[in-house]
Write a structure and sequence with these properties.
The complex is a heterodimer of chains A (314) and B (479). Chain A is an all-alpha fold and 314 residues long. Helices cover 74% and strands 0% of the residues of chain A. Chain B is an alpha+beta fold and 479 residues long. Chain B is built from 15 helices and 22 strands. At the A-B interface, helix 1, helix 5 and helix 6 of A face helix 2, helix 9, strand 7 and strand 9 of B.
């Protein structure tokens, strides 16, 4: 596969996952703040902005964090590189660049999501009932996943897409853990929100019941082998793809990933409310970023310039 | 009320009607349209447009803010060509393509006998922008220098098909032919079923066969790629479409590298050798080492690999000399000279401006003629005398006198008209036809081609890059 195509597919995977992740987190935050006293409602939104390390940037655009301003910033503002709009537009730009190697079904699904945003329909929906706006995006993302799953041969193209998706997801799960650790390490309700944000509350409750300790939740989010949003699950998935697509011996990223993954898999997790845990999560996040960088270098180790449509920082 | 009740065919040659009577091969269409009202057609148009948008079937119009995302414009009233008419057109196209290929081969690797025998002046050839010295002495298998030719046809006031121009460099439009048909299958399935229309969607294998035949060496499974300038090119959709249909990679210049006169793809598993490049980049941008040094879409060293015989590129370099609009005036001579036949498809009457008599005559009746620069494509620089302002005509006069080699004048062809949906009604609009001719071991013509339609009332400009629309073209099975 062409290096440029591989990169494009990787980024489509990342951007689609990013849009889906952000929208899910917004939906939960919206839901949570509805039941909060008006005086603490804003805190729900600022906590969410913290997950993306965006509080300062947000402050430069808006005075107060409300459903409306956060939606404008995190969903509709294309100039914000960590917005749903930016993810959608970038996913589409990338798919146009690799349209010869993706199935029509996938192209069409991405274009439909793009039309939802570009036609102004998403803005209208969010202005009416935010939840139905979030749901619309989520459904489109599920349609895109469905097209990937149903219409693609399990060749390198599919694997690069999945690599992008699961690497993005691993980063996202990590970030949520990191922020919750920082702002409300012992608050069971906060951790329950994290679980909901990754569609994991039901799976968790089935496994551990509704009364489980915070450390059990964290362990689940980091290490569960069956839950598709746990960091370990995501990294295992990434390994499975990388091992197949990489040029044996000459790629660095599979080794980097292997190290990060075994560091996670074979260590005992420190208690949440400790500095050791903070260090543990930070080094995990750093490790994932290193994988992404090594992957890029691998793609272009035979020469050539990286494509123009990627945006590394989140 | 039926759509056709109030149709006024106007005064031109009308494809569907002959003095108010529906032509035989349009009978079924007329019957079907009689069952439709405006809303029916409008609904189908909307459905088609949203399908095209979701599939990303676009054609960019440069200089237009929203150009990048312009959905391909199709008019759902099909243009129908009878089997008898098509048989003549097809013969004419094959004949013309053979002659043009023979001419190009004579110029670049032959003895230039057509010049030596005095049929075409040497300076006309050498002064053509499309003539590339860099292509001299580079042979092409089977002299198939135009693997893909798009030869634009118009019908004059008497219904005679004439060649308006030859496109022998990177003609585009075939993907829209195929997508238009797919759209018609969704919009008018019953009508299509009633007719017996020749299919068009075999193009991918037709083109791949012709390209693989060009592969150097005897690898039975050569690597073919489509080379595009990138996503911002107006025809990018088509480039991707063709790569998909052929099952080959769509590459940009940066995906290729030349090492020791061999072209390689940059893949995730290292370099992979390339045998044939179907390029959709103009000559001047192909290789910054021998053409335009500023080109960022080309591949340095590509021409050296071609010259070494390690890679074939299609269409060949230098074809522009044969679709130069001044050289066009010699095509009938070429047919006679190389094939010993008379041209089946006539040209449009054309005057070359370097000839003092023709120039004087043309500048004396500018209002009646069309002036065109010889090397442009896509309708660029064309001035139609009767609709041009005095200032525009003066500007043309100045340009012609400053550089007569660079201009031709043509008699206005009153392009035939065809019923076209305006959103409110059916009205006559001017159309042309771009058929596609593929030269491999043998020459094949896609049945029909791209019918382009001037959407503005009275306009003669059908070019897609000038905002023209399109129609599906149905060639009927014989018998």
């Amino acid at each position: 596969m062409l290096s440029r195509h591989a990169e494009g597919l990787f980024w489509i995977g990342r951007y689609v996952e990013r849009a889906a992740d952000i929208i899910r987190m917004l939906d939960i935050a919206y839901d949570v703040q509805l039941e909060r006293h008006p005086s603490v409602r804003e805190a729900v939104w600022t906590d969410l902005l913290d997950v993306f390390y965006l509080s300062d940037q947000f402050g430069g655009h808006h005075d107060t964090a409300t459903t409306e301003t956060v939606n404008n910033f995190l969903v509709l503002d294309e100039s914000n590189p960590t917005s749903v709009a930016h993810a959608i537009v970038s996913a589409r730009a990338n798919i146009m660049n690799v349209r010869d190697v993706v199935p029509i079904e996938l192209l069409e699904a991405v274009n439909r999501l793009h039309t939802l945003f570009a036609s102004g329909r998403l803005r209208t929906e969010l202005g009416g009932n935010p939840h139905s706006g979030y749901t619309a995006v989520a459904h489109h993302c599920q349609a895109i996943s469905g097209a990937m799953f149903d219409a693609m041969a399990r060749t390198d193209g599919y694997r690069f897409l999945m690599l992008g998706r699961f690497l993005e997801r691993a980063e996202n799960s990590c970030r949520m853990i990191d922020v919750t650790r920082a702002v409300a390490p012992t608050d069971a309700a906060a951790w329950r929100s994290v679980l909901r944000s990754v569609s994991g509350l039901h799976a968790f409750t089935q496994l551990h019941g509704p009364l489980a300790e915070v450390d059990v939740v964290v362990h689940f989010l980091l290490m569960d082998r069956e839950f598709p949003y746990s960091v370990l699950y995501c990294l295992t998935e990434c390994s499975a793809q990388l091992d197949v697509v990489s040029a044996i011996g000459s790629w660095e990223s599979p080794r980097t990933l292997g190290r990060v993954r075994s560091d996670l898999e074979f260590s005992s997790i420190p208690p949440v409310n400790t500095n050791d845990f903070a260090d543990f999560v930070t080094s995990l996040e750093d490790g994932i970023r290193l994988v992404s960088r090594a992957f890029h270098d691998d793609l272009y180790q035979f020469g050539g310039d990286a494509a123009l449509y990627s945006y590394e920082a989140l | 009320m039926s759509l056709l009740t109030d149709y006024d065919p106007g005064g031109m040659f009308e494809e569907m009607f002959d003095y108010g009577q529906v032509r035989d091969h349009y009978r079924l269409l007329a019957d079907r349209l009689a069952e439709f009202d405006v809303e029916d057609v409008r609904d189908r148009m909307q459905l088609t447009e949203s399908t095209f948008r979701n599939l990303g079937i676009t054609f960019a119009v440069y200089g237009n803010e929203s150009g990048l995302d312009r959905t391909w414009p199709i008019d759902l009233i099909p243009r129908i060509i009878s089997a008898t008419d098509w048989a003549i057109i097809e013969d004419g196209l094959i004949q013309r393509t053979r002659a043009l290929n023979a001419f190009l081969d004579d110029i670049y690797v032959g003895e230039q006998s057509i010049i030596n025998d005095g049929l075409i002046p040497d300076w006309v050839i050498k002064s053509s922008d499309g003539f590339k010295r860099q292509a001299s002495g580079i042979p092409v298998r089977g002299a198939a220098r135009c693997v893909v030719a798009g030869i634009d046809l118009v019908r004059d006031g008497n219904g005679v098909y004439r060649v308006l121009e030859d496109n022998l460099r990177v003609p585009s439009g075939i993907s829209y032919v195929i997508e238009n048909r797919a759209a018609m299958k969704r919009a008018f399935p019953v009508l299509l079923e009633q007719y017996s229309v020749r299919p068009v969607d075999d193009y991918g294998s037709m083109l791949l066969r012709a390209l693989e035949w060009q592969a150097p060496g005897d690898d039975s499974n050569p690597t073919v790629v489509v080379l595009t300038p990138g996503v911002f090119n107006s025809a990018y959709f088509e480039h991707a479409f063709l790569a998909r249909r052929m099952g080959v990679e769509l590459v940009e210049g940066r995906d290729l590298v030349v090492d020791d006169h061999v072209v390689y793809l940059r893949t995730t598993h290292g370099p992979q050798r390339v045998d044939v490049i179907y390029r959709r980049i103009d000559d001047d941008f192909l290789d910054p080492a021998v053409f335009d040094r500023q080109s960022v879409v080309g591949i340095p060293g590509l021409m050296s690999a071609v010259r070494a015989g390690n890679v074939a590129i299609a269409n060949a370099v230098g074809n522009g000399v044969a679709d130069d609009k001044a050289v066009y005036t010699y095509v009938a001579d070429m047919v006679r000279y190389y094939l010993g036949e008379e041209a089946i498809l006539p040209n449009v009457d054309t005057y070359v401006m370097w000839d003092p008599d023709q120039r004087e005559m043309s500048l004396g009746r500018m209002e009646e003629l069309v002036f065109k620069p010889v090397a442009e494509a896509g309708g660029k620089g064309i001035v139609i005398g009767r609709t041009a302002s005095t200032e525009e005509l003066e500007e043309v006069r100045r340009l012609v006198e400053a550089d007569p080699r660079n201009y031709i004048a043509q008699e206005v062809v009153e392009l035939s008209t065809h019923p076209t949906f305006t959103g409110q009604e059916l009205a006559p609009r001017h159309i042309d036809l771009r058929p596609f001719v593929v030269t491999g071991e043998s020459i094949e013509v896609v049945p029909g081609g791209l019918t382009r339609v001037a959407l503005r009332e009275g306009s003669l400009i059908v070019n897609s890059s000038q905002g023209g629309g399109s129609k599906d073209t149905w060639v009927l099975e014989s018998g």
